[in-house]
Write a structure and sequence with these properties.
Blueprint (H helix, E strand, L loop, with lengths): L6 H6 L7 E4 L3 E5 L9 E5 L11 H22 L3 E5 L15 E6 L16 H15 L1
Bound molecules: adenosine monophosphate (AMP) and zinc ion (ZN).
């Protein structure tokens, strides 16, 4: 279902113009206005889901396959040598637009560092405690 006050719903529906690279019944893929790299795309489901926690299973497979297809198209069409599929959930994870979207970020051999982190440290005991807490979260 579309949400009238959601900008990505309106872009996906074609009410707000966008540089569309792909469209089908369920999705529209557009160029990001603030690209991390040349050809940075966003895949938007036409139905409104705030983030992955609301995404239904029948949408999850196709969106990943579309990410693969568009990433490969960027390699062929733009000369990218790799690509990242990135998807943020929640403000603390960097999500700024609360309509599920999958970033497809083409990467180039001389490109900037994106999505890097400094590896932390932990002990075997800490890892076991953390794993236990996550397993409890599965219940
Ligand atoms: P996120 O931080 O994962 O929520 O990503 C939101 C992305 O949407 C950012 O990369 C923005 O540059 C991009 N963005 C925001 N508004 C628009 C818009 N109207 N058209 C295209 N991209 C947009
Ligand atoms: Zn929406």
């Amino acid at each position: 279902m579309k949400k009238d006050d959601c900008i990505f719903c309106r872009i996906a529906a074609g009410e707000i113009p966008s540089a569309t690279v792909y469209e089908d019944e369920g999705f529209r893929a557009i160029l990001d206005l603030g690209p991390a790299a040349k050809g940075h795309m966003l895949i938007l489901p036409k139905d409104h889901y705030a983030d992955v926690t609301e995404l239904p299973e029948e949408c999850a497979g196709p969106v990943l396959m579309l990410g693969k297809k568009l990433g490969m198209a960027a390699m062929k069409g733009l000369g990218a040598t790799g690509f990242n599929l990135v998807q943020n959930n929640g403000a603390s994870a960097g999500q700024t637009v609360r309509h599920f979207h999958l970033h497809v970020i083409p990467r180039y051999d001389d490109g900037a560092v994106i999505a890097a982190w400094t590896p932390g440290e932990n002990t075997a005991e800490e890892r076991e405690e953390i794993a236990q807490a996550v397993r409890a979260g599965l219940e």
